[in-house]
Amino acid sequence: MKRAVPTLLLAVITLGFSGCIEKIGAYQDSQWPKQVSVSEYWLREQIRVNVPRPERVGAGQLKVNMTIYNVTDFDLLIQYKYVFTDKNGVEVDQSGAGWESERIAPRTTQHIEFTSMSAAADDFQVTIRPAK
Fold first, then answer.
1. pLDDT 10s per residue in the chain (132 long)?
2. Could you tell me if 46 and 106 are in contact, meaning their C-beta atoms sit under 8 angstroms apart?
């Protein structure tokens, strides 16, 4: 019985931490889907994200305008990466394959715009992290 208690405790702790691997949603308008995530909880407290409805441009490509507001009193160095997906959630092009860097001055906004290469793009995902 004395061995069962520590084993049971270890199992409960392991199961508790296994659910902590999901994406961290960025603060954004509550009426929009969670298309933007951040890599760190503390970063979530330092920015606010506004993602207007994407629009079709050119030959049917998907264009996204995003505004990031720095709520802190210091410069914020971030990187972001985006991918476009089709209606099934499958990535459709490599246009956002690398990390883009931005410096956001204190209490100001930074506008970010990106457009898919393919007309098959139906949605997008953006990940924001501290600059490396």
1. 555 555 555 555 555 554 556 777 766 656 445 788 899 989 989 999 987 789 999 999 999 999 999 999 999 999 999 999 999 989 997 665 689 999 999 999 999 999 999 899 999 999 999 998
2. no
Bridge partners, residue 24, by sequence: 38
The per-residue DSSP string of 31-68 comes to TS---EEES-HHHHTTEEEE-PPPEEETTTEEEEEEEE
Say if residues 26 and 46 touch (Cβ distance below 8 Å).
no
**Which pTM was predicted?**
0.74
DSSP labels for 75-130?
-EEEEEEEEEE-TTS-B---TT-S-EEEEE-TT-EEEEEEE-SSTT--EEEEEEEE
Sorted by where each begins, the domain ranges of the chain are 23-130
CATH ID of 23-130, from 2.60.40.3230, 2.60.40.10, 3.40.50.2000, 3.20.20.10 = 2.60.40.3230
Backbone angles phi, psi at 38, to 5 degrees: -120, 155
